[in-house]
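[Meeting: bench + compute handoff]

Bench side (C.D.) handed over the final construct sequence. Compute side (W.E.) agreed to return the predicted structure before the next meeting so the bench team could plan truncations. Sequence as handed over:
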Amino acid sequence: MGKKVSESEVHSEIIVLPGDTNMFGDLYGGRLVEWMDNIGSITAFKHSRMKVVTGSIDNLFFLSPIKLGYIVHLHSFVTFTTRSTMEIEIDVSSENVTTGTTNVTTRAFFTYVALDENGHAVEIPQLIPENDAEKAKFNEGKLRSEHRLQLLNDIKNGLK
């Protein structure tokens, strides 16, 4: 049994409040990562319908500042699955509410692992890419997954 990208895709908008910013009025990077992890988790829950934990975050670059009062637009969707993991692409842009100008802020890939009640990885529905864009993202996700596994093994071996 598989699932389509559209079955777990999530869109969210959040306004940046004073408690979200540093003394210069810029959104804290850590707060943005928290929001990204939250929407990524929702996507992973909707895809797997299981308990999930964050396994990794790939390629997180902050491309433009987000100011106090801006609207943050988050979009997340599954790009690739393994037996028990989901790669979730999270795209973020920000909107200046007074000018309507939007800027791309970041794109990152979060990996979530589905767990059973004992904390063991469990099988999830596999992703069913439906169009050429989804198939391309799936193939790119497969390459990233292989790279992540190699990095994970390297790190584990370095800790011994």
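W.E. noted at the follow-up: The longest helix spans residues 132-158. C.D. will use this when planning the next construct.
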